[in-house]
Amino acid sequence: MSYGSSYAGGTYNRANGASIHTTSSSGSQAGLAIAARHSSGYVTFHSGGDTERMRIASDGNIGIGITTPENPLQINGSVSELNLLVKNTGSNGARTYLTSFAGKSSIQTDKDFTIRNNQNGWQDRFILTYAGDVGIGTSTPDAKLAVKGQVHAQEVKVDLNVGIVPDYVFDKSYNLLSLDQIKSYIEVNSHLPEIASAKDMEANGLNLGEMNMLLLKKVEELTLYLLQQKEQIDLLEEENRKQAEAIEAITGKINKE
After folding, report:
1. Does residue 162 sit in helix, strand or coil?
2. What is the mean pLDDT of the segment spanning 99-112?
3. Phi first, then psi: what are they for 180, rounded to 5°?
4. Cβ neighbour number for residue 202 with a 10 Å cutoff
5. Span 108-112, average pLDDT
6. Which of 189, 215, 212 is nearest to 200 (CA)?
7. CA-CA distance, 149 to 141, in Å (whole number)?
8. Is pTM beyond 0.85 here?
9. Where on the phi/psi map is residue 94: left (φ > 0), alpha (ψ -120 to 50), or beta?
10. How many helices (H) and strands (E) does the chain have?
11. Are the C-beta atoms of 41 and 18 separated by less than 8 Å?
12. What are the angstrom distances between the C-alpha of 7 and each of 22, 28, 42, 109, 194?
């Protein structure tokens, strides 16, 4: 590249429309520009035996490891793990990697990871803590998934320990409380046996898996009560039938006399 003429903002070197020049001559405001003035011109950066490492294409796209970047920033590589690192070197600063592996991509960090927006001030909307807990609407999740707000789902499946499913209610040895005992309990506690009170639920929340099993248990117990009632009704109907037959027989005898 040969030296060219003077430039309003400083001096530059030019060859085939490319230049390196200062953008101003006013002391501290001076800058350095690298320009490829041709409509298809580009700027490249080389190292290690004149190997191209980075390119700024004519459309402004930047490529690292690629000479034809398709996006504002594109990084290509053939290594087993390709990383883009953003590092905060301040106190307690985090390191965040945008990583591409064989068959998958990931975002990795050595601190909590959050997604934020600036509605009414910057706020965490999603957080994945360093411990592996996920929070939506809360920055302090106390479980693997904590959601502060409504959840809308088409279907929810909960895995349970098969041993706690209450089919044991139908075992002949199961001690089913009498309805009189249930009545006495409700009069004292104002809720069903084994079911937490409204006050407890408000204070401690609700375990859906546990509550569903308790409700299933109460449905099975209710089924047994209904079966007992049916047996009693069947006995009464049988007694009524026999009484009706006896009355009819007596009435017939009286009529004959």
Report:
1. helix
2. 86
3. -65, -40
4. 10
5. 90
6. 189
7. 13
8. no
9. beta
10. 3, 15
11. yes
12. 9, 18, 21, 47, 88
